[in-house]
Specification:
seven-stranded mixed sheet; four-stranded antiparallel sheet; globular
Length: 126
């Protein structure tokens, strides 16, 4: 059973940057597709970014493309989300998620991820 723990959220001004981290423990990490999702108040959970097990393929939401970058360090069992040029509409709780299967492609559907972190709040002030 994989456990995921996000960190790095906080309050930032519009135009600023934050880097989120997600540390995995308890199970294999290097063979799993990883994803970042977010949920704003009153809205559903939406994909931010997804990355395959070896980092060879990525998928981004249109709203963050060119501003956010997902990366991973399999040696450290950690996946990152670098967020630049933040906007007020990026305000949300950000969740890290892991696919339970191995060696799959990028996954945009939250229902395909089995393991989830507790989330970290990102607040962007305008």
């Amino acid at each position: 059973q994989m456990q995921l723990a996000e960190s790095g959220g906080g309050l930032v001004q519009a135009g600023g940057s934050l880097r989120l981290s997600c540390a995995a423990s308890g199970a294999s990490f290097s063979r799993n597709t990883m994803g970042w999702f977010r949920q704003a108040p009153g809205k559903g959970r939406e994909l931010v970014a997804s990355m395959t097990w070896n980092g060879g393929s990525t998928l981004y939401a249109t709203s963050v493309k060119g501003r956010f970058t997902i990366s991973r360090d399999n040696a450290k069992n950690t996946v990152y989300l670098q967020m630049n040029s933040l906007k007020s509409e990026d305000t949300a709780v950000y969740y890290c998620a892991a696919d339970a299967s191995f060696f799959r492609g990028t996954l945009g559907d939250a229902k395909l991820y089995e393991f989830w972190g507790q989330g970290t709040l990102v607040t962007v002030s305008s």
